[in-house]
Amino acid sequence: MESKREGKDKFFIVTRGKARKGFARGCIGRVEAEMQKGELMGLLYGCGSSGGNPKSGGMVKMEDTYPLTCHQAQLLLFVSPSSKRLELLCNPQLFLAICVLSQDDLVVVKHKKGHQPGLVRNLMLIGKKENQGDLLMLGFEVEFVQESNQTVSSKKPAPLPLFSAADIVQVVPAYSVGLGPSWKDSHSEGLNRKAGSRINSMPNMGSCGRQVRDINHVDQSVTPPESLSHHTFDVGSLVEVTSNTGITVYGVIQWMGVLSENKIDWAGIELDYEVNNCSDGTYGGQRYFTCKGGRALFLPLTKCSPDGRFLCLRSEKETFKATNILPVTPLEEIDENVPPIPESEALSLLVGKMKGIQGHYNSCYLDATLFSLFSSSMTLDSVCHKPADTEQSISRSLRRDIVNCLRRQGFVPAESVMNFRKQLGCDTFVTEEKDPEEFITILIQRVLCMEPLLKLRSNNNTSQDAYTFQIILDKEQVTQTPTVQQLLDTSFLSCGLKFEEIPSCLMVQMPRFGKKYKMFPHIIPSTELDITDLLYNSPRECFLCGRLAEYECPQCLQDRKLQPGRVKQYCTTCKTQVHTHPSRKGHCPRALAVPAEVPADAPLPRHMMQLFAVLCIHTSHYVSFVKYGPGPRSWLFFDSMADRCGDDHSGYNIPEIRACPEVGDFLSQSEEELVWADPSQAGEPVRRLLCDSYMCLYQSTPMALYR
Length: 707
Known about the structure:
By secondary structure, the chain is of the alpha+beta class.
């Protein structure tokens, strides 16, 4: 195999693909040669104290890599484990800021269990260069700042702590912060650091093209850079707040109002990360909202500014585009099949702002549905397994530009979704609001070219196909706060329906009509659905004795003495005994179709389906809760239009994904605990899940793999 050209001083990081000869995701290598078949021959760098020594060589697909400068490679090489390197690359704005850090730049670093501001004092070369090809790692010496007087401690100098690029959570360049003369220089003489050498004069790698102002003339107040009169804030707005020390924190307004001791408007902000002296949503002993401890900041609304990370000059062509989004792999190169996001990588890839699917122009129904179906579930992955010569343009657009992009990069720009909407065959999908079930029907019929997901059989033995199932029942048939299991069982028995086969995916529409009317104020999504008793011609066990059942009684469903809400089927003996009771003499048990080859006392398996997503709607906006792994607390909340930057004509929506472990905590309670739980006392995510649920999505993993 001949090489096209030799590579010198070119570095890369492996971003995807299966491990080949040592090259796994997150590994850093040096290009030795570029081959004709789109592959790189390279040397692999390890990690740890000897991370800069190339250990082995191998081949890796060029499309599975992302190019790095030597400086970037040195910074990432000091980051461990390798998964954190990819996590850092997924925040391109922060990574680029870290790459151009200069001496005396102000940063916020992870330290112990919190975050600490400090000054970058030196770049440190880590390791020992023994051979010409060795690559020394780079770390940062950071001098912490005392909050009380904004000066460095006068105690006996100690070795400055060393941090990797992944330890830095925020960068505030020195030229933009009024540090003033109170910031003292550290006394670094005589420091002894093992296997490391200090770069005496830190290079100002970002100095080209930027004008540095006199730091003694910078206003140190907390006044926002622009007058509040130019900005209208609401609950949910993304804001930033800068302290007198120059530390800028970012967050979302969760509460606005007037505190009892003040006459001006205040804001309660949920910060992006924990900060000392912040609360969990309480102020002055009173709770205004709920969040993680150390993340709630209360201050006058006049101190808030729009989140500067999303402010930019936008042209008409950039209406859909997110700013400063640096994809790890160009969209056009993601043409291979990408598996669902594994649980171990979901949080680092997905959580944050500008994550998920970016909404635009009434697309929330489609955004929430696509994110729920394809981010972490493989139930409809048949779209990824069609032969290239039979794949339609719209299927290719869904697979390559949405599914693969979401799973590989954690973000799908609005223009990709708009291009997909234009191919759905009806102009109303481009401009109008729709409901998820309408889109799901088109998706399965036209895009995926799949057979209907549900095959149902009625009492008169007629078969019917469906894509989703609408719960139909009388309100009095179930409890005031029913579970989805109770709703499904009752609806099937009331309508005289059975599943002809186990569905790979079951999408259950809640009993609500339109966007306003809800039959029940709260519905509890069952984390598992037992559909054993809803299968046609499938062996079932007697409700009482456990032997093979031969009869089913719809009238016994709500019998208060026989576990109301549970499907009741009996063997011949138990059927006779149960219906000798005077209150049940009017019941009409129905004979079941029992397979002849099943012994009467044989153990019968239960057929379960797992909840993997819940679509919710409040007024006219769809969002979704998605389970991203088998762990009980592995839940995400997704909103494709969580905030907006700019106006309706030249702005764009900011999608956001949040981790919601509290949802898993609530749903993991026993059935008895859920019955007595008070949804109004639960946190906002749980309350929203129970109040606004529109469609619950369940999957049968074995059936999805089979089909």
